[in-house]
Amino acid sequence: DVQLQASGGGLVQTGGSLRLSCATSGFGASDYHIGWFRQAPGKAHEAVSCISSSADRTYYAASVKGRFTISRDNAKNTVYLQMNSLQPEDTGIFYCLINGVWGQGTQVTVSS
């Protein structure tokens, strides 16, 4: 079975940092682009960041550019999202998406 296991969320204060991980199993994740999405309370999913299969191209939403860094370790079939200078508006459930498969999400809460 294809599985995505997101982890690393939590409660932090404004200005804090978190590192999210999305571990994949059941298929060759290294062949696919991977994206992180965020769903804030009462809002639709928003694309936060994406990385190409070979990690030579990345995308960041304007709201997170300069604060978040996406990376991947294809040997471990894992993608990471380093989040620095977190703000209350970053609060939400973060999901990873690979080849049409969604992970279960990890909650990020930033207190003011």
TL;DR?
0% of the residues lie in helices and 54% in strands. It is mainly β and 112 residues long. A hairpin with a 2-residue loop joins strand 9 and strand 10 (101-102).
Structural account:
The protein is built from no helices and 11 strands. It has 112 residues and is an all-beta fold. The strands form 2 sheets. Strands 2, 4, 5, 6, 9, 10 and 11 form a 7-stranded mixed beta sheet that branches. Strand 5 (45-51) and strand 6 form a beta hairpin. The radius of gyration is 13 Å and the shape is globular. The model has no long low-confidence stretch (mean pLDDT 94).
Q: How is the topology of this model organized?
A:
Blueprint: E1 3-7, E2 10-13, E3 18-25, E4 34-39, E5 45-51, E6 58-60, E7 68-73, E8 78-83, E9 92-98, E10 101-102, E11 106-111
